[in-house]
């Protein structure tokens, strides 16, 4: 019979109340220590009513957005199933040459236009308005199923407060995941019609998740920025604790050896390794979702977004790599206990690694198993909440800005409530008996394949309708007169940035999008029945068709030509601006003459 674990419950209560305690201490410090000093304000209101994030709030929000549950839930499986260290190398190359540059270009774009992502693409050229709609649809779908992944942590947190852990003893972690949490069908090819009934425990957990998200986002960016400080810091601290503890376990070295020591050069010759690695860093850092553009539209026009972008990119990749040490130490420990190889243990549960293999390994921590389990699953929850807040805030801001442009004004809480209810209702699909399989399919077709298409189209828009010079000048103008860059910051390293802008990003995303489409067209993804794959193909088709809805429009860009843009006068100089008399024509010649230009 299960009993309440004092250690597990105590750890959970400590983690719950540490946030309010931190807020109280910060309040007392501000009230009685620096009451007469002007500290940094998280959010201010501009003359037009637009909220402006402080530098600190902006960076914390972006870090919380970029470091998500995918860094722990998805990253280790990607590495394990693609050759270990070779996949790490592919991941780092894709990060530096594709994901990082695109993310930073989005930050520059958002700050320059000061518009949320849907209206930003329309401002660049009206024909891209429907691309903004498609990006909104991508974000809406991704947030709806991503919320379910985060929700899975709630029953595991509750189970971590029981003694013994409910997935030990007569019930294996695999059975607990498949039968107790998901109640999934044993054979997808031989089952009753439909997706099966909604699982009320998952539905209730999903409701709790959306209530948390609503109350965190609905009342403005100042409240959200306060919450983000804790939800960003906590998982980092918890991850460090996990790494310290797990790397001391027997067998941990074998897991780490597989992670960073098993390098097979031949693996880098496989296109699938690159496709999976790029898909992982894009989903993790999340360029292409519109959040980077939207958040940067709410910062000062003098904010150094390049610096912020580099901090976020490095933090995201570093956290994934750090998380890999914790996860593969646990996998190595489990492999030694079971007398199996690390690769067998790491790949046997697919993307359910965190909910099957890691859950199973918790039982080997002896008297500390409840404490370690609470720490691990609370860390996953807080990682997911940060990204969820950012995505929900992006959707809310985009809807609000669109409504205001039409003369409609609604309180933020009403817009947030409407979106949260809609995504909760759509998310109920993932609480059915086939919900996890539907989630996996939609994640592949929308969260991977369409995301590659979105990033490819973005790179085309940047090259043809926004331009390298405008991107460079926008950054230079924003940082002109700053302490560290009095003449304005330039892209660094310049040659690599231009190569990424014109070549690496469009070629990599376009090639791998084509590869993935051909691959799933030839071989049914995951061996799933066609009735299930129809969910993925339908969602993908809907997103692709949405991109084309306004592509026929031929109106010119609403952006001024570079030489007429007053924002560049001081930082670039009129003589330099005069060299480009049209908004985009100079970019076409640059593409042709790029290799002859000195760097």
Write the topology of this structure.
Elements: E1 3-4, H1 6-33, E2 43-45, E3 51-53, H2 55-66, H3 70-73, H4 75-80, H5 85-113, H6 117-124, H7 129-151, H8 153-160, E4 162-163, H9 173-181, H10 200-217, H11 221-246, H12 252-261, H13 271-285, H14 291-296, H15 305-338, H16 342-347, H17 357-361, H18 369-405, H19 412-427, H20 435-466, H21 468-479, H22 494-522, H23 530-547, H24 569-572, H25 574-577, H26 585-593
Structural notes for this entry:
By secondary structure, the protein is mainly alpha-helical. The chain has helices at residues 6-33, 55-66, 70-73, 75-80, 85-113, 117-124, 129-151, 153-160, 173-181, 200-217, 221-246, 252-261, 271-285, 291-296, 305-338, 342-347, 357-361, 369-405, 412-427, 435-466, 468-479, 494-522, 530-547, 569-572, 574-577, 585-593, and strands at residues 3-4, 43-45, 51-53, 162-163. The strands form two sheets. A two-stranded antiparallel ribbon has the order 1-4. The chain has a two-stranded antiparallel ribbon with strand order 2-3. Helix 11 (221-246) runs antiparallel to helix 18. The protein is globular, with a radius of gyration of 24 Å. The termini are far apart. Residues 35-39 and 580-599 have low confidence and may be disordered.
Please tag this protein with its features.
single chain; 599 residues; mainly alpha; two-stranded antiparallel sheet; 4 strands; globular
Rg for CA atoms: 24 Å
The helix tally amounts to: 26
Strand order across the largest sheet: 1-4
Global shape: globular
Which assembly state applies to the chains in this document?
A: single chain
Structural class: mainly alpha
Beta content comes to: under 5%
Roughly what is the average pLDDT, rounded to an integer? 86
The low-confidence parts are 35-39, 580-599
